[in-house]
Amino acid sequence: MDIEEFPYLNTTDLSYHFQEQIVYLYLNIMRKTNDFVVKELASQFRELLLLLKQEMVKHRCSGLFHDGFKYNQYIDLAYRLVAHTRDIVGGKGEHELFYMLVYELHRVFPTLSIYLLHNYIGVYKVGSSLGNNIDCKLGCWRDVKYLCNYVRNVSPKGSDDSIIDICIELMNNQLKKDIESWRFSVNAGSRKHISNIAKWIPREKRRFNWLFEKLAVHWCNNYGRWKLDSDNYNYYSALTKCKRQYRKVIARMNKILDTTEIKQCYQLWDDINVDNVSKYTVMKQSKLFLCYGNKDEITDVLDFFKDVSKRSCSQKYIERSVPIKSSYSHNEIIQLPISYFVKEAMHILRSCNTNIAYRDVLNSNWEKFSRTFDSYRFYNTLPMVNVSYKMIEKDAEAFYAGVGMSIIIAQKSSFGKRILALENKPTWVNLEDSDDFLSIVEKFSEIIRSQNNTCFCFERGIDMIVTALYESDFLCNKMKLVLFSNGLSGNIEKYYDYMETQFTLMNYYIPKLVLWNLSKTDICEIPGEKVMDNCILISGFSSCLIKYIATLNKDDTAYDVVSRILSGERYEMYSQYMSQLVQKSR
User: Model's pTM, two decimal places?
Assistant: First the structure.
């Protein structure tokens, strides 16, 4: 064959394609209510991993493997993206999307997924470059059974998928460690030195009964006094005994954990130890723990005694919380979703709740929460939030999160406490005279009360900003505009082009535009090169990502910021493990 007639094809550099895909995934990976959208994201992530693996195989076959694989950084970022998606402290804190990413990672790079599963729950410390220790706990034991359920539903192998076996081994190994730690370790009898795995192990007569049986069999075969033989004619009676023994083990550990939900099921309100009530239990049942009491609901003697017990439980919790002006510790506060604060404040205002203790606790919690951002200064940063009907349609979490994050930025911005509320007619919201959190939310809701049933118009908001700059004769070459909205799909290019045009016409410096996606139903398109170079694209309901807006540089691209977010030291252990695998394979 003539080489001149059929020359070798030039190798295409895929770096920009990988950068584009990582930004696209980061912009869209957040909680979704549409199963089709989740499948689409799973397909995109799988295709990215497969292409990276294909290029890795080509590189090995080329004989240049010792020179280093130039796309390793993108495998590393994809790996970190999985960890970041679940990270409850420094990441997005998502559940369902994390399960999807782990499953797709396991299909292409199983070794990486297994290492992540073995390490993302346990409290591991790694040394940082600053010499400090960093807590690398990303999720909780609740995730494991839901991951198994997700895999069972999407995998062709169903409940026989290998990742489910790995999860079963993880859960029972931890349960065994907790039992030994409670009974035999130097910290015997200490609840602080055992996990809450017993709380999250599935029960027998619920939708996870299939998983309970697998766990019971695994426990019996590995930690019990006998092994089950499926060929034995007494198998089913032995299985029943095995389940009974496993139930006793779980019940014993739950008693040690003092699980609140179990006491609630048995109506043992007086026995609830308020010091052991988790932040999520209070968050979901704030009426019980912070302001319980509705005499109109009492219809008989039994209801009366239940009401008295619940009131007593609520009073104990309030008495514990008020003296320290907060119902949560510092670490618990920063893990609460920002939408929770705004939602609770709106509920208090709508219901005209006069419970002073409840109001004080919420204001105190917000004050502690907002202090976590005191080290960041949002110079020349203007928050804009979509307050149109679409933000509160079906699910108002996007609205609550957008308002909460706008308030955080406004409180720390050099522009003062100003927010631009965007709907058909944009409105300035000045919060300078509002002292506490409830008064801030009250003023915000009063201003936008008549505007929630309109359509969102970004262009009119930009016009209002340009007019304000012209009238005040204010010039700024480092302005940042931050838009929180769930209506970015199909509009990203249009929004940036309009902003660029309007500022150029007035001979103003073009601001850095941050588009924060809050949509649970739509997928935003892959941005063009101009947007990738000049816009910052973030998504999710986690307020911890706000700090990256404060640290933006003038020349940052969308990929630069996503790469910086994923390069956090909390995920360094996963990069180190991947590097070790690469070294061993050479």
Answer: 0.88
